[in-house]
Amino acid sequence: MTGGGERWARWLYRGNKVWIPIDDREQPVVDGHGVVRVRYRRDDEREYAARREELAPATDEALEAIAAARAQRRRRSSVIRLFTAATADGGVGFVLDADGYRREVGLVAPDAPIGNLELLAVRTGIGRIKAPDRPLRIQVEAAHTRGVLVGEWDADGSDAIVDAIRRDLERFPEHTIAKAKTDARSARAAALAREAHATGEAIDVLIDATAEEE
Question: Of 17-31, 66-80, 136-150, 186-200, which range is least confident?
């Protein structure tokens, strides 16, 4: 909460919108070290320090320039990427990455067979793709998941869902399925699976990844 009669205004810190305290001249309140207190949300008491020279007024022109740069980074991706994971006790997670957006989903499937859990993540993730007109790159957590999908391993009771995924993949002009390497999105898929299982609640968040780059 803001207190003490302070006035706060929207400014830009390194191109990001923040809240800062301002004086009677509408200028940042600077301490004796040349530092300005910064909040990313006005009602959040967590504060950070910024140098005065790193701040700029959030004028209409500046905001338009930021929006234009963000739109440029969000230009249509050449591929769609899907990262999946699952826990042994019924948590399922996936991250869908395309066009500057990232969809993060965690689900709970306590009744699904263990061998089907990550396959469920794959199928659900594919089902969230509305325009399958580009190559799809899938990275799975378990070697078993990749093995049964590419036909190197026996489906072992997962035939129905494996066949369904293969039919789904026919919609795409090209696709690959690989064992996940070290990647923040693969790690996030695993974290979503754990979180969904721990809370017993579904997670579904859409993130503007271009905003994180600023």
Answer: 66-80
